Automatic annotation (TrEMBL):
<dbReference type="GO" id="GO:0046872">
    <property type="term" value="F:metal ion binding"/>
</dbReference>
<comment type="similarity">
    <text>Belongs to the Gfa family.</text>
</comment>
<dbReference type="InterPro" id="IPR011057">
    <property type="entry name" value="Mss4-like_sf"/>
</dbReference>
<protein>
    <recommendedName>
        <fullName>CENP-V/GFA domain-containing protein</fullName>
    </recommendedName>
</protein>
<dbReference type="InterPro" id="IPR006913">
    <property type="entry name" value="CENP-V/GFA"/>
</dbReference>
<dbReference type="GO" id="GO:0016846">
    <property type="term" value="F:carbon-sulfur lyase activity"/>
</dbReference>
<dbReference type="Pfam" id="PF04828">
    <property type="entry name" value="GFA"/>
</dbReference>
<keyword id="KW-0479">Metal-binding</keyword>
<keyword id="KW-0862">Zinc</keyword>
<feature type="domain" description="CENP-V/GFA">
    <location>
        <begin position="5"/>
        <end position="119"/>
    </location>
</feature>
<keyword id="KW-0456">Lyase</keyword>
Amino acid sequence: MSNSISGKCLCGALKYEFDAGEWVIALCHCAKCQISSGSVFSYNACIPASSFRLLSPPASVTVYRTEGPLQESGHPSLRNFCNVCGSTCWTQCETGPDTETRYVKMGTVVKDGQEGFWGSKPVVEVYRKGNEVGWVPRLAGGDESG
Ligand SMILES: [Zn+2]
Ligand SMILES: [Zn+2]
């Protein structure tokens, strides 16, 4: 599949791919992404669930269900991470209007054999409010939806 983009966790036990095509690159500043990622925001490719394929046995994945509001949306989220090395590879909403979206962690994406596909600039950032970190500049034209 030449038009697919693949990704993997740190140890390589968890591998996935998705169709190259329409995606939205978004930064999420929510407190849960901050804790989960150990950083000040998460860097996500928002893609249709129908284009996402897990290439490893499902037993490679541990799903952590975030109770309560995920991103102030009120819908629980499922954080999918490698049960060997702990790298979160994607999240998804359990309920609500966005269950057919996968939020793939861009840091786990491999593009054309090159690890760390950072060429796609984020165009949206969400949930800065209340989680603002002063030294992180705002995206020009970023949609502040939360
Ligand atoms: Zn791993
Ligand atoms: Zn988040």
